[in-house]
Write a structure and sequence with these properties.
Blueprint: E1 9-10, E2 20-25, E3 28-33, H1 35-46, H2 49-55, E4 61-63, E5 73-77, H3 91-109, E6 113-115, E7 123-126, E8 129-132, E9 138-140, H4 145-167, H5 171-177, H6 187-193, H7 205-209, H8 217-229, H9 253-270, E10 275-279, H10 282-291, E11 296-300, H11 303-316, E12 320-324, H12 346-349, E13 352-358, H13 360-366, H14 372-381, E14 383-392, E15 395-397, E16 403-405, H15 412-420, E17 425-429, E18 436-442
Parallel strand pairs: 10-11, 10-13, 11-12, 13-14
Antiparallel strand pairs: 1-2, 2-3, 3-5, 4-5, 6-9, 7-8, 14-18, 15-16, 17-18
Length: 458
């Protein structure tokens, strides 16, 4: 079948590879292979090498009978539900991506193959599992000492230096530096900006300053793999691991349990394709979605919490992707950067069929000073069809048991009005917990109610 070029959207980040180019067609990810490289990759499919590499961490890839002008071979990749980028990973995710890159290249070496580049952009996460996605980076192994050294240094600039800066607590600097995929964090950056970290890099001086120490590509990979695996991060306080309500407006454990059961039933009845979780009890709700067979992503600005969820998801093999994303100011769209054209905004890559936002409205209004229209705009751009949002009334209980309104404009009717501007259907669900309302929003007009749980509210 011949693909009409008009229907194809080429990935803007896939422009510099001479072997092929990634494109999107009918909602799926494909890769066109050039005539110069097609026979090489066809052979890897025919001799079973690709199947073995998929087991080793390569994103699932298959040949197709499709054709597209300018390419001799068209491959189909497994389309990931959520597409994350390195500056959205937690430090432990970054370390695991580095380990995969080493392990995958070592596996390639056993087949007489290698990677033509070794940077973090070759990896994405499928839930809690890192996957190697740059198929065309796989090339025949070479004895070129110059090329091996170049790849080695590229790995150091893109993985080793960022990881050790994270160990030293410079996570924000690392994230901003990763916005430039062409440079990474070079040796000059380290020497000029962080001279006090020389002791941290003592183990790597023999490799950084003396390329002659690199005897073979395979040996250097194993050395790097051992060094990365030994990296340990300092434990940080987790504000909310998902084992309690973790909110500024507390509720007792019984109400927490009943709320979770109630939300679980709403999700079950709606049956979204996937779920984006922001706010309180993130891990709990991600696990609820996993039990229903629904993949999810947790967007959280607290890296310690993201790491905690990542560890739990990895241990329990949950289809949960946790990311360091501030939904109010997500990178890179919130800043002016020359490479923004290559990075689709987070609400395109991480958009879910349903967004669950518990305890978020109160926090954004009081702590961030955002109005209802701004809050709804933030939540709606991440949601495809549905939004479940909790509204906490703006009251406190004083010692004299008097309700005091904190913000004159903060009201349920005002919030529902803002939601109605973005969604066709807005239902305030039965919810018996004092000072709280649960609201289900749907984009589709004329849709019948997804839930019938009048007697099931907590």
């Amino acid at each position: 079948m011949k693909i009409n070029p008009i229907d194809v959207h080429f990935d803007p980040a896939s422009v510099a590879d001479p072997n092929g180019r990634v494109f999107w067609w009918q909602g799926e990810a494909y890769r066109g292979i050039t005539s110069e490289s097609s026979e090489f990759y066809k052979l890897l499919f025919e001799n079973g090498t690709i199947d073995k590499l998929v087991i080793a961490g390569l994103i699932h890839t298959e040949r197709t009978n499709l054709s597209l002008d300018g390419f001799d071979l068209v491959l189909r990749h497994r389309t990931l539900t959520f597409r994350s980028l390195p500056f959205e990973w937690s430090q432990e995710m970054f370390r695991d991506a580095a380990i995969l890159t080493c392990d995958f290249n070592i596996k390639l070496s056993s087949y007489g193959l290698a990677l033509q580049d070794m940077h973090a952009w070759n990896v994405m996460f499928d839930g809690s599992h890192p996957k190697f996605i740059d198929f065309c980076s796989i090339v025949p192994e070479t004895d070129s000492r110059r090329k091996n050294i170049a790849c080695y240094y590229e790995f150091i600039d893109n993985f080793i230096f960022p990881l050790y800066l994270m160990v030293a607590g410079h996570n924000k600097f690392v994230r901003m530096s990763l916005l430039d995929p062409d440079e990474g964090i070079g040796r000059n950056d380290i020497k000029n900006l962080f001279p006090f970290l020389n002791q941290v890099f003592f183990k790597f001086k023999i490799f950084i300053n003396k390329p002659s120490a690199i005897i073979s590509n395979n040996q250097s990979l194993r050395s790097l793999r051992k060094s990365v695996s030994a990296i340990r991060f300092y434990d940080k306080v987790v504000k909310d691991s998902g084992d309690d309500c973790g909110e500024s407006q507390p509720r007792n454990s019984n109400s927490c349990d009943s709320t979770r059961e109630y939300v679980s039933e709403i999700i079950f009845n709606a049956s979204p394709k996937n779920l984006v979780v922001v706010g309180s009890d993130a891990l709990i709700y991600a696990k609820i979605a996993a039990d229903l067979g629904i993949p999810s992503t947790v967007l959280e600005n607290d890296e310690a919490l993201v790491d905690a969820i990542y560890r739990r998801a990895s241990k329990d093999k949950l289809p949960v992707l946790s990311l360091v994303v501030d939904v109010v100011n997500p990178w890179p769209a919130c800043i002016g950067h020359a490479h923004n054209q290559f990075f689709p905004p987070s609400w395109n890559r991480l958009r879910g069929d349903m967004v669950l936002a518990m305890g978020v409205v109160y926090e954004l209004a009081h702590d961030k000073g955002l109005g209802f229209e701004e809050i709804v705009s933030i939540l709606s751009r991440f949601s495809g069809n549905y939004l479940i949002v909790e509204f906490i009334e703006d009251v406190i209980i004083t010692a004299n048991e008097l309700d005091i309104n904190l913000l004159d404009w903060y009201s349920l009717s005002g919030f529902v009005g803002a939601l109605s501007n973005a969604y066709c259907k807005v239902d305030i669900l039965p919810y018996s917990i004092p000072q709280r309302k649960l609201i289900l929003c749907e984009r589709k007009s004329g849709a019948e109610s997804l839930v019938d749980i009048r007697d099931a509210s907590p």
